[in-house]
């Protein structure tokens, strides 16, 4: 029997310049409805943004190596919103606070109902706001009734 994971609890992002990233993420996270706190962990200052579902934290990097989304490690992070209208609204509000985003559009090469906007943080971390797609809804609400649900399980 597998352990049921209820969701992501938190994500920590290392940043080159904490003040510069805090200014960017203050604008981003306000649009996305996050709250903010801060503090110190292990002697390093940290900035925490949080919602009921999970936290997103910034901490100073200990290396000056540039982020490369195509090197081993993080490629991008996606924030899921309720629908295409919310993607449009997020893109518009992000642009209004000075964050450059792609024009929201469908990406049928990813999935028939994939609708998103993309942008980057000051360190080049790729970010995305995407609609709550039908496949994700099925995974969330119909997990035990999906065709092949037991057949496609990872072997123990």
Short overview:
With 156 residues, the chain is α/β, with parallel strands linked by helices. It is 22% helix and 29% strand.
Set down the secondary structure blueprint.
Layout lengths: L9 E6 L2 H14 L3 E7 L2 E7 L4 E6 L15 E6 L2 H13 L8 E2 L8 E6 L5 E6 L2 H8 L15
Parallel strand pairs: 1-4, 5-8
Antiparallel strand pairs: 2-3, 3-4, 6-7, 7-8
Description of the molecule:
The protein is 22% helix and 29% strand. It has 156 residues and is α/β, with parallel strands linked by helices. The longest helix is centred in the N-terminal third of the chain and has 14 residues, at 18-31. The model has no long low-confidence stretch (mean pLDDT 91).
Question: Which descriptors apply to this entry?
Answer:
156 residues; alpha/beta; 2,3-Dihydroxybiphenyl 1,2-Dioxygenase, domain 1; four-stranded mixed beta sheet; 22% helix
């Amino acid at each position: 029997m597998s352990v049921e994971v209820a969701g992501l609890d938190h994500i920590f992002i290392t940043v080159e310049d904490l003040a510069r990233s805090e200014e960017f993420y203050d604008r981003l996270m306000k649009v996305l409805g996050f709250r903010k706190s801060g503090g110190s962990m292990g002697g390093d200052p940290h900035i925490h943004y949080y919602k009921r579902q999970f936290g997103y934290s910034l901490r100073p990097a200990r290396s000056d190596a540039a982020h490369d989304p195509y090197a081993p490690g993080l490629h991008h992070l996606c924030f899921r919103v309720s629908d295409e209208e919310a993607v449009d609204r997020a893109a518009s509000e992000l642009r209004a606070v000075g964050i450059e985003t792609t024009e929201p559009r469908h990406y049928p090469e990813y999935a028939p109902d994939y609708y998103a906007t993309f942008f980057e943080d000051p360190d080049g971390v790729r970010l995305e706001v995407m609609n709550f797609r039908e496949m994700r809804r099925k995974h969330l609400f119909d997990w035990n009734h999906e065709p092949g649900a037991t057949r496609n399980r990872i072997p123990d």
